[in-house]
């Protein structure tokens, strides 16, 4: 079969398409010519053009039927999927770096995890982490479906959420400040009271997470940078949310483990009392920061 090819800046792609898909009929396979800087649909651009070897008629076609790529007339392996894969890996590594940085910086969730781990032990602190995990999933989902943008667009609504978050954190700070040293472990007399106590730890983690409206702003700004609108949304969202939540769980678990190890050295009355007051003051400061920070 005599197939002539036309070079455009050295890039040539052969295609196998039905004869009816070109404007000028002939008994040769058409040749798709792609200029430099333009890629295939599904990778970096929307379409390219088919050109008959005997005519100048051009018709836009999708890139799903593209087969081996030539560069300078030499047959090589298609390079655009590799480029796309490398780009996706680079973007994902950037996202992972951002997630690690954000979750590792001490904030209300970290302080609460340290407090619960030192008071109750590592295993109980996991409930606090799971509560925070659920809150972040809810906020991330709200941001992904567009409700986050609606909340951010309403300054009065966003301010109201910040006030509520401030009230909760200040309340939690006062509660921790006044916590007696004797409540080291959750060992109530009945299973019902034990369940309520464990649920209280979970609710604290959930409350600290859900009371931070700035998380909505963070997710609303972050996700669009790493979601490709040309691809299916749900798989991309699941990868992003599971990644950041998985990293958050590992980071908070590390804080909890280190705190549990250090707990015996702070189990005396004076060190623990000082720690409770320091932790309570930190929660109060976090709450006030929600109001006064821009």
From TrEMBL:
In its keyword annotation, does this UniProt entry include Transmembrane? yes
Principal subcellular localisation of the protein? membrane
Q: Which Pfam families match?
A: LysE
Entry keywords, A to Z = Cell membrane, Membrane, Transmembrane, Transmembrane helix
GO CC terms, sorted:
plasma membrane
Report the locations given in the UniProt record: Cell membrane
Nucleotide-binding: is it a keyword of this entry? no
Q: Which InterPro entries match?
A: LeuE-type
On the tree of life, the source organism's domain of life is Bacteria
UniProt membrane topology term: Multi-pass membrane protein
Q: Which residues cross the membrane?
A: 92-114, 126-151, 157-177, 198-227, 233-262, 274-292
Q: Name one GO molecular function term.
A: homoserine transmembrane transporter activity
Please state which protein family the record places this protein in.
Belongs to the Rht family.
Q: Which PANTHER family does this entry report, sorted A to Z?
A: ARGININE EXPORTER PROTEIN ARGO, HOMOSERINE_HOMOSERINE LACTONE EFFLUX PROTEIN
State the protein's name.
Threonine efflux protein
Where does this protein come from, organism-wise? Answer: Desulforapulum autotrophicum (strain ATCC 43914 / DSM 3382 / VKM B-1955 / HRM2)
